[in-house]
Amino acid sequence: MPRLAAASLAGTAIEFYDFFVYGTAAALIFGPLFFPTFSPLAGTLAAFATFGVGFVARPLGSVLFGHIGDRRGRRPVLVLSLLLTGASTVAVGCVPTYDTIGVAAPLLLLVLRFLQGLGLGGEWGGAVLLTVEHAPVERRGLWSSFPQIGPAVGFVLANGVVLVLSATLTEAQFTQWGWRVPFWAAGALAVLGLWLRSSLPESPRFLEIGDHARVPLAEVVRDHWRLVLLTAGALAVGYAVFYAVTTWSLAYATERLGVSRTVMLACIMAAVVVKGALTPVAAMLGDRHGRRPMCLAGCAAAALWMCPMVALLSTGAPLPMFLGFLGALIAFVTMFAVIAAYLPELYEPRVRCTGAAVGYNLGGVLGGALTPIVATALAEQQSGRVPWGVGVYLTGIALLSLGCFALLPETRPVPVASVRPALE
Asked: Could you tell me if 31 and 43 are in contact, meaning their C-beta atoms sit under 8 angstroms apart?
């Protein structure tokens, strides 16, 4: 289990590094480089639109790789998704800007972001299922939380590289070539991830399935459509909160409040580090008290904290901003630490890779793709004031997710030998 958990964590960290470094670049630099004919606001919105394309592609990736995972095994998904995401990310670092090739530049960016999303859409399902289907019943939540730590590690890596470059390069150097370095680094990370995953064993639960689904998506749509919609709505708040903190707030504070790029990256990174450290703790609580209660608590906390977070961000001061981000990410991790065990337990083994991944990534479309765009537009309408509209928007998503979680069943296996575990 430690080797599986470490390989899953490393793989998700690398793939989310690829995904997050794009979000950071979209918030800081893509507007003037790829949409120079737009106003600053329109350029930011256009950059966030290309960012959102990755989320739209993720459910498609979960269908494609979910089919492979349910038909051929969880392990091939880990290799193929990592190759696709890594190659797409390196290619983003090679795209000429608008000044060089004109409108072809943002179009290339759009295509590569779509391919990034396809790869990441398959990554989560493969990594989580390979871990959770090996894990002992009473510790599924804990072991499956390690892939969930990966996004925090990936985010810190992505923003750490940008932070170092921002602090050591001049503005001209960063704009000319410095922003490309984090994308090129993805190539080395992908090679490392492939090496770590090359010797992983296939899931024993998958090998036990005698009758594999011929078309997993068809079975999911026919037999589990309500479950997919509920899980997508339930997970929307996690994506909305995370990308409000890590993407929208970065653009808002640097462009509207005049906070330096270095200060913002440091504040966000510090909050994400704490979130990553708390992930296994929240997962152990899920093993003890159940998945659903943790998710309901996280949603309720998010609903209560979104307006205070926006108010603390509007101060532009490092400590209040950090506290606002930290409170939001604690609410986030209370939910998402147990999701890696919760979603697979909701689906039968023959369609688990497709069902869990589609529900997870549809939540990303609802919460992650739209939040930076909607929040930027709402904040613009309240120029010079605290953007309460953003807080209300995020609170509304939290309440929607709370209602969806309330309609989902508990899945934590009952610790009695005569009762068959939910995952089986």
From this structure: yes
